[in-house]
Amino acid sequence: MTNLVLASTSRYRRALLERLGVPFQAVAPPYQEVALESLPASKWALTHAEGKASSLAASHPEALLIGSDQVALHDGEVLGKPGDAQRAAAQLRRLQGQEHRLLTAVVVHEPASGRMERDVVETRIRMRALTDDEIARYLQFDEPYDCAGSYKMESLGISLFESQRGDDPTAVIGLPLMKLCRQLRAFGVRLP
Q1: pTM, whole model, 2 decimals?
Q2: Which listed residue, 71, 127, 148, 171, has the most CB atoms within 10 A of its CB?
Q3: Cβ(123)–Cβ(166) under 8 Å?
Q4: Exposed, middle or buried: residue 103 (CB in 10 Å: 0-12, 13-18, 19+)?
C-alpha cells in the first residue's frame, strides 16, 4: 500500500482527505511561505503547494506527498492571508458585494522518482453585501486571519456568500478532491 502524507496541519484538509478512505498521515511542512508578487496568481499557489509537498521529501522519501495552497484574486490583485483583524476586515469590505476568484493548487510529489502531478482549480465566488457589524461579528467568530480572502467557507464564512461557480466544491475548503483523485490514480492509488 502506498504511504500518503498530507503536507498540512489544517483540520479541514485532513477531513477532506479522510473522505477518500485511504490511510494517510498529516505532517506540518517546514516550508515557509513568502509573497510572490512577480508571479501570476495560479503559479503563486502552485509554487507554495509544491514547496509544502517537497519540503517533506527528505523525511518521507518513500511516500506520496500532497501539498495544497490557495490564493484569492480580486481585480487582478492577489489578496494574501491577512494576519490580523484589521487587515481581514479591510479585505472583506473590499470583497463584499462583488465576485472574486479563489485559486486552489494541489500537488502530489513522489520523491523516489522525482515525479510531480500539479493542478489548479478556479472557483468564482460572489460575496453578498455586508455591514461593518456583520464583518466584525464574523471575524470574532471564525478568526480567519490565516486564510486567503479572510474567510472560512467550511465554517460560518459560508454565510457571507451568495453564489459559487466551479468544477470542484471541495476546492474552496482547501483540497480539490476531484483533481487529487485523478493525481493519485496516476500514481497507482486505487480509488475507489
Answers
A1: 0.94
A2: 171
A3: yes
A4: buried
